[in-house]
């Protein structure tokens, strides 16, 4: 058989193709081999992708609610976070949320992505006062209310608000079909002096992994991910994928891994740091697919606008949330491509673009019954969004 000849000298690859798991050491070996012989490894990641995900690539049609972008922490690469008095500050009122939800619905969005900084009220009295004036004692409490508004308007909420407690997540589970929390990286080294998470205690990997585990205990589908190119070693990325894998093996609730390539932002400490190098990023995508062949793997298309075919060919099966009306506040200098552009590029690479909800079809069984009923109105037999809901 051509395939077994192709990989016969590399047992770790044979294992993945046989449906067996590889160890972390074997993943390290594959990384080293990638430096010498990438073609064979890319081919294996492509086979695994096509075996597990077919020729479909998904996206979620979303509206981005930048609820409050003050943040208790400071990550050296972050341009999302605002300070008081800066023009980019966002503190959305209840009316703003309602208005945007209505516009999102008109644009046939299905996802309401709620994003906030990490517990702004712990650092900024102004945030505390603003929350109080709106009738809330915490950002999490406001998120619960904002999610209720979006759900009522016909959008499906997905919240990404940093490290939430178990009881906060339990409340959000009533309206949110999934939650998001980037692991970023499992290495504590990146929290040391001079490293990007030095001033971001919430990015301590132990804290992040604990939240992912709490979400698992509650049974919430979780989106997580790794930020690539922030001073980590390739082995630390492999360790991070294995850390996510371990959590997923315990609870089965990790619905996707986002692999995000670092891009320097002019107003940040890391403004002179180079972008994640293209081949390095591609190799990490291929490795992630080989380590977790069945996982949904996403890269944001606005951060790699010229490389659709490249990433589809080594393992991704999702382009994440794409908004036809709101900017990417996390990467404001990279506007979203139009959905038509994503569709055309995917099709040119041999893949069919389909819309999903912020919960993947295989995780709909996790969500609360009231949400399942709403979901059933907009999805087809495969759990993906019905075409007529987007027209
Ligand atoms: S990345 Fe998140 S936690 Fe870090 S500074 Fe930005 S908003 Fe805060």
Describe this structure in words.
The chain has 391 residues and is of the alpha/beta class. It is 40% helix and 14% strand. The chain has helices at 2-7, 11-17, 24-36, 38-53, 94-106, 125-133, 139-152, 166-172, 205-218, 234-251, 278-291, 308-313, 339-348, 369-378, and strands at residues 56-68, 111-116, 156-160, 178-180, 222-228, 254-261, 297-298, 318-322, 352-356. Strands 1, 2, 3, 4, 5, 6, 7, 8 and 9 form a nine-stranded parallel β-sheet that branches. The N and C termini lie far apart (46 Å). The model has no long low-confidence stretch (mean pLDDT 95). It binds iron/sulfur cluster.
Task: Give descriptors for this structure.
391 residues, alpha/beta, nine-stranded parallel beta sheet, binds iron/sulfur cluster
Query: Which spans have pLDDT < 50 for at least 5 consecutive residues?
Result: none
Question: Tally of extended strands?
Answer: 9
Please report the distance between the alpha carbons of the first and last residues. Answer: 46 Å
Radius of gyration based on Cα positions: 20 Å
* Class by SSE composition: alpha/beta
What hetero molecules are bound to the protein chains? iron/sulfur cluster
Helical stretch count? 14
Indicate the overall shape. Answer: globular
Mean pLDDT across all residues, rounded?
Answer: 95
* N-to-C SSE string, H for helix and E for strand: HHHHEHEHHEHEHEHEHEHEHEH
Helical coverage, percent range: 40-55%
Main β sheet profile: 9 strands, parallel
Beta-strand fraction estimate? 5-15%
């Amino acid at each position: 058989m051509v395939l077994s000849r192709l990989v016969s000298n590399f047992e770790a690859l044979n294992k993945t193709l046989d449906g067996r798991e590889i160890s972390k050491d074997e993943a390290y070996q594959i990384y080293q081999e990638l430096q010498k012989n990438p073609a064979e490894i890319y081919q294996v990641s492509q086979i695994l992708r096509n075996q597990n995900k077919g020729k479909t690539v998904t996206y979620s049609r979303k509206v981005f609610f930048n609820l409050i972008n003050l943040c208790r922490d400071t990550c050296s690469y972050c341009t999302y976070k605002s300070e008081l008095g800066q023009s980019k500050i966002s503190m959305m009122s209840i009316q703003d949320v309602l208005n945007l939800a209505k516009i999102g619905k008109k644009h046939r969005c299905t996802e309401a992505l709620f994003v906030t900084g990490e517990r702004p009220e712990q650092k900024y009295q102004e945030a505390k006062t603003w929350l109080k004036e709106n009738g809330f004692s915490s950002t999490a409490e406001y998120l619960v209310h904002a999610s209720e508004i979006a759900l009522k308007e016909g959008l499906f909420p997905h919240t990404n608000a940093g490290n939430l407690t178990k009881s906060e997540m339990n409340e959000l589970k009533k309206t949110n079909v999934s939650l998001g929390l980037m692991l970023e990286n499992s290495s504590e080294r990146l929290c040391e002096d001079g490293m990007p998470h030095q001033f971001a205690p919430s990015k301590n990997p132990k804290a992040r992994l604990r939240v992912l585990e709490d979400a698992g205990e509650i049974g919430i589908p979780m989106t997580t991910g790794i930020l690539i190119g922030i001073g980590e070693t390739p082995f630390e990325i492999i360790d991070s994928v294995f850390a996510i894998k371990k959590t997923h093996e315990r609870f089965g609730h990790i619905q996707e891994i986002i692999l995000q390539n670092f891009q320097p932002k002019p107003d940040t400490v890391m403004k002179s740091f180079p972008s994640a190098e293209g081949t390095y990023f591609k190799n990490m995508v291929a490795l992630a697919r080989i380590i977790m062949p069945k996982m949904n793997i996403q890269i944001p298309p606005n951060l790699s606008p010229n490389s659709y075919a490249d990433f589809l060919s080594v393992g991704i099966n999702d382009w994440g949330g794409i908004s036809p009306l709101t900017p990417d506040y996390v990467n404001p200098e990279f506007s979203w491509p139009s959905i038509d552009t994503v569709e055309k590029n995917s099709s040119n690479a041999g893949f069919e673009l389909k819309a999903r909800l912020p919960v993947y079809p295989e995780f709909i069984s996790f969500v609360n019954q009231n949400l399942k009923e709403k979901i059933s109105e907009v999805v087809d037999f495969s759990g993906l969004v019905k075409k007529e809901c987007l027209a």
